[in-house]
Amino acid sequence: MIMQLQNLSLKIKIMKNIIYILFFLSVFILFISCSNELPADHYIQRFSRNISFKIIGEYSGELSISYSNPNDNHGVTPGEITTVLPWQKDILYNESTKLTGLSIKGSDGLPNEIVQLLIYADGELIETEFAIADENGKIYGETSIIYFYHNPNN
């Protein structure tokens, strides 16, 4: 009887080891099969270059608005000033521009005023963020960076 229990215990250990080996082997095969098939410089267009920036909400102070320069891949527009919301800017970015984004900063507002920053590509909302004025009426907000292309290999 003891011999049968030892044999059963040994068989269970062997089965567990086989299961572990099969599991790790399948994970290894999965990683190999998911290797990159596209060249490293192959990029896929992610969003349209026809971008609309919008800022809506309530802010009684002056807002300085910055976004990527449509004619310069490395530049940001100097702060465009507005005291009136809603604000909107429509831009068709050139092919050399790789990314864009929107940021605001303001002063002389009232505490807890809220604005919403929106980015549309061909009329489709692709990014939105909220900004709330602090106890001194200052506000700061920014969207995530929007990349026009991405490399599926990274």
Tags for this entry?
alpha+beta; 154 residues; 1 helix; 4-stranded antiparallel sheet; elongated
Question: What secondary-structure arrangement, pairings included, does this model have?
Answer:
Layout (H helix, E strand, L loop, with lengths): L1 H32 L10 E2 L4 E8 L4 E6 L12 E3 L4 E6 L6 E2 L1 E6 L6 E8 L2 E9 L6 E4 L3 E2 L1 E2 L4
Unreliable spans are 30-42
Structural class by secondary-structure content:
alpha+beta
Q: How many E-type strands? A: 12
**What percentage of amino acids are in beta strands?**
35-45%
**What oligomeric state best describes the polypeptide chains here?**
single chain
What general outline do the C-alpha atoms trace? elongated
